Amino acid sequence: MPSKSKSPYKFSYTDAIQGKELYNYFGNRVLESRASGGRIVAVKVKPADGFVRSEADMMHYASQQPGILTPQVLGCYDVDPEITVTVSDLVEGQSLDNVWHTMTKAEQKSIKQQLKEQLRLFRQCTQPYIGRIKRQETKNFYDRIHLHYMGPFESEEEFDSWCLERVKSPTAKKIWAQLLPGMRGTGEQKFVLTHGDLAARNIMVKDGKITGIVDWEYSGFFPEYMEYALAAVVRDGHEDWWKPHLKEILEPCGFKRARFTAAIKWRGW
Length: 269
Prior knowledge:
Blueprint: H1 13-17, E1 20-25, E2 28-34, E3 40-47, H2 50-63, E4 73-80, E5 83-89, E6 94-95, H3 96-99, H4 105-123, E7 126-127, E8 138-139, E9 149-150, H5 156-164, H6 170-183, E10 191-194, E11 203-206, E12 209-213, E13 220-222, H7 226-234, H8 243-249, H9 255-266
Antiparallel strand pairs: 1-2, 2-3, 3-5, 4-5, 6-11, 7-10, 8-9, 10-13, 11-12
Helix pairs in contact: 5-6, 7-9
């Protein structure tokens, strides 16, 4: 992704922090700012953490893939020892959660078809490991306070073994250890681009068209079942009205895999 020294888009750090607030969700702030050349940009402000840069790396990777609607990353900057900002193109439109209920049935159907196409494009982007681009670790989305990371993992078996350690019950752990080999795919392992948080608030639309998918905090390369498992089982922040629609769009994972994902989340059976 563009480095600080190479980025042509310069702006005052103070202006970035004090820009027009577009979004604030549990402390993750996105502001509108203007680069010195007049270009309007989005500035995501987060506590300083090396993990912020790997999120920007994933977003940059996605933006370079043909057809994937993700804002281009312009830079990632340390404002001070405690704050890091990611600068990207500002996506036009409104978040889907603000406009869905004003749409006609035909418009809603079109949005769902467009999102399904985006997911098809996601699945064309693969890596031979579970993790982030350049074999970086990913956010541990099973962690309720979201402060820990996991991976990278060289195989689905290695990932399953790590997940199995989260199951507390010895009996349940023994049962899952017997079931897991039959739940894994066979042949060459490729792990697909996964957004990890397809809440309606992270899908931008304008004039009936998806203009961008934002907030790649939980992204990485995972087994194909993971996007559905995250939406249906793991993620608690999705809008209740949106979940049924999202389940229709995503390719479902098997019952056992969904059950195992729930066991990992709750650390039990």
